[in-house]
Amino acid sequence: MPFDAGTPLRVEETADGGWRLLEGLRYVGKYEPFLVPAGFETDFASVPRLLTWLVPTAGLYTRAAVLHDYLCRKEGFPRNDADGIFRRVLGESGVPTVRRYVMWAAVRVGGSLRGATFLDVLGIVLLFLLIIPVALPGTVYILAVLVLLFVVELLVWLALKVAGAVPRAGPVRFWWN
Asked: What would the DSSP string read from start to end of 40-88?
């Protein structure tokens, strides 16, 4: 992992509910190292309260979120580069693929909406409304196939269980782990 192993993430809570780094956090990137300085304030993962059941504000991705916050506030650092580094660090931190891409998409959309005018937001909403009729049939088809495959897999597992032939396996990693 490209974060310095000898530098644990040490923080203290601030008066406004955020977090302040007690020690610097060093990340060795693909082309250059980054040092998030001690004293830097963050909120970890900026997740809307409505969605914290799906993505809590802290987890495997906490260091990636701190680095992303720092890079987004760093003078002259392009936002799309910060978002790309965030996605890569999520993968290096062991965040499962689906969650990694959901989090990356959220920061891309969130960054696009920062400072957006009413017309910008209206344009995005209209774009989504145009995409939905095109994407919905394929989405429904894929979901139907996935449900069918789940039922087939369940039936096979039940048949093996009854026959006493279910092999022992290690722990199962779900997409939300």
From this structure: -EE-SS---GGGTTTS-SSSTTHHHHHHHHHHHHSTT--HHHHHHHHHH
